[in-house]
Amino acid sequence: xxxxxxxxxxxxxxxxxxxxxxxxxxxxxxxxxxxxxxxxxxxxxxxxxxxxxxxxxxxxxxxxxxxxxxxxxxxxxxxxxxxxxxxxxxxxxxxxxxxxxxxxxxxxxxxxxxxxxxxxxxxxxxxxxxxxxxxxxxxxxxxxxxxxxxxxxxxxxxxxxxxxxxxxx
Length: 169
Fold this sequence. Notes:
This protein is an all-alpha fold. Helix content is about 60%, strand content about 0%. α2 packs across α3 (about 35-40) and α4 (about 45-60) runs antiparallel to α9 (about 145-165).
């Protein structure tokens, strides 16, 4: 069970590696290696400093590890079982209540996107709505592989920032 109660940056700075990874390993979807690598950069001055460290770890990681991180994310609008935090994020913008027509459009665009890029469409959905997400999917499917790879990583960083904001005081 992941502990997502609020923690101060000072408390994080006092944690051993196992505690730190237990507390933050979920922030980057199914990729606790990001927290494990970031632990070596203790102490952190702020939530933003921690996020910068985590983003640096991902940015400096081997391309196969970055791709695995992207592939760990669920399709948007999926009705399959996904992580609790992803489920709440998607429900927060109504993706859990799509009409049959909208669901079909999400499935079709997700399939097209995955066929083209070999990783799921990733977008930080907080503050978005289904129409904005669909528009972004339609637009981004036209990107080159490298453009989309970098865009997806950027969206992962935004998601991680939102998640850290929710758990670090």
